[in-house]
Amino acid sequence: MTTAALTQESSQTSLVTTFYIADALCGVNTSSVQEVIQVDGVTTVHHAPGYIKGIINLRGKIVTIINLSRKLDLPQSALTDESRVFIVEWKDEYIGLLVDVVSDVVGVDLGNLDPPPANVGGVQGRYFKGVCQPEQKLVAILDLDEVLSMDGD
Questions:
Q1: Residues ≥6 apart with Cβ < 8 Å to 53
Q2: pLDDT by residue (tens digit) across 73-121?
Q3: How far apart are CA 95 and CA 86, in angstroms?
Q4: Could you count the other beta carbons within 10 Å of the beta carbon of residue 128?
Q5: Mean pLDDT (whole number) for 38-43
Q6: Which is nearest to 72 in space by CA: 132, 120, 29?
Q7: Hey, is 8 helix, strand or coil?
Q8: Domain 16-148, CATH
Q9: Residue 149's closest CA among 91, 88, 76, 96?
Q10: Which of 31, 84, 123, 138 has a CA-to-CA distance to 18 between 20 and 30 Å?
Q11: Three-class SS of residue 149?
């Protein structure tokens, strides 16, 4: 492969952090993730939408924690030692995404995703940019703008 081809190939590949929500393997662009933390000290927010797990104080910043299994209408798992919160910055605010298990970081061409399968339709389907198969595993790539938007919720 030529140097130009290698440069072009690497410029199209983005790193994606993958994680499980129940049995679903999902991913987000690694550049969107500020940090990954253990689930600890979540304070319940009364009258918040059902998918809001609560809030935490992260080094002086209040962070809203979204339970992705509730938001995506996937089966819910109990919190375990492997449960983690992905901290992302969205519209000048820190948001936490509660996931069941962190999996891996893989290279993905985000400009060349396949459409989500037909069984991921309706409201749930709008939360995904598409799917890909790095390393022979089907990964659903989250659309963070849709997931974090309050529109229609």
A1: 42, 65, 66, 67, 96, 98
A2: 888 888 899 999 999 999 989 999 999 999 999 999 988 999 887 766 5
A3: 8
A4: 21
A5: 90
A6: 120
A7: helix
A8: 2.40.50.180
A9: 91
A10: 123
A11: coil
